[in-house]
Amino acid sequence: MVWTGVGRPHEIVAVPGVVLAPGETLVAIELATVCGSDVHTVEGRRPAPAPLVLGHEYVGRVIDVSDGVRAVDGAPVHVGDRVVWSIMAGCRDCDRCRRGLPQKCRSLLKYGHERIQVHWELTGGFATHAHLRPGTAIVRIGEALRAEVAAPAACGGATAWAALERAEDIVDLDGATMLVLGAGLIGLTACAMATDRGATVVVADPDPSRRALAVRFGAAQVADPTDARGLTAALAATGRPEYDVGLEASGSPRAVRSAIDAVGVGGVVLLVGSVFPTEPLQLDPERLVRGLVTIRGVHNYAPRDLDGAIRWLCEHAGERPFEELVSARYPLTQIDQALAAAASGAAVRVGVDPRDAQRRR
């Protein structure tokens, strides 16, 4: 299903065949989910080179693979493997890839964000199949992990894992107090993962239903960020003296400011949600210097983060209501309705199921 521009419905495009080049893989998609950036694109809030196939959260099964393709764990990828793959493909050889920043590769390709082209039409998740390019991180997941849990891990889940890994470069989460602003997929997943690592987590979100959901994902306390004393009261209720980590997952400038203001001495602020233009913020550099505060931007992730997130979900997803996060599902041919449902914010994630379209082929 091809998006051709703001205000236009998706169009069906048939791809009669795919010829794989060295290092490439063809996957039949089992389920895709709608990320906020997909909504931002169709609303015109995020520039994109139409026509393109949106969607970058997915799970599927390998139906063809070139010789020598290997998963993140080093094992060969075989036809029949059930897999999740990264939202990007890097060259693995430029200076950024060699520095461990493949998500910022000099010749980066991003699934769900690239214009379709001859011999690479299956560029995103809102399709029956995906054509994976060389340099894509592939993680085999077996059969037990539900598709509703596996698909969002390709973006939000792996990004949450990456944020916590970057936090632990500065602060040991075991025994730390962590503030999460935004109870969407990333915030809820980070809450569950951080709680499992021994952190006491406070989740702030203006939506009461999201705050209730955060409790089920392990939050020790929840707060309404529109309440002037909400974050302070929630911290006091934990019995902890200060926030050691602040994770901002909504992109709201007010929430970014709250995260920076909330952390104590030696704290780390993780900015994850600011992936669309907003007004700039003023910072007090003296407060950051004297407080030994670290601010880290986390955008996407490295292959090891996707692998870590999937491994954690395989072991712990059943302890939290991850399956409930995909609370609406649409067939692929109703992708415009799925995007509208996602834009409403009623569901944390909306599923897009291509299997009816696959059966009709």
UniProtKB/TrEMBL annotation:
Q: Which residues cross the membrane?
A: none
Q: Which UniProt keyword terms apply here?
A: Metal-binding, NAD, Oxidoreductase, Zinc
Enzyme class comes to oxidoreductase
Q: Domain Alcohol dehydrogenase-like C-terminal: where? A: 186-313
> Which Gene Ontology CC terms are recorded?
cytoplasm
Query: What superkingdom heads the lineage?
Result: Bacteria
Q: Where is the Alcohol dehydrogenase-like N-terminal domain?
A: 22-133
**Which InterPro entries has this protein been placed in?**
ADH-like_C, ADH-like_N, ADH_phosphonate_catab-assoc, GroES-like_sf, NAD(P)-bd_dom_sf
| Pfam entry (one) | ADH_zinc_N
User: What EC number(s) does this enzyme carry?
Assistant: 1.1.1.1
Name the needed cofactors. Zn(2+)
Molecular function (GO) terms for this protein are: alcohol dehydrogenase (NAD+) activity; metal ion binding
Name the family. Answer: Belongs to the zinc-containing alcohol dehydrogenase family.
What's the protein called, per UniProt? alcohol dehydrogenase
Species lineage = Bacteria, Bacillati, Actinomycetota, Actinomycetes, Micrococcales
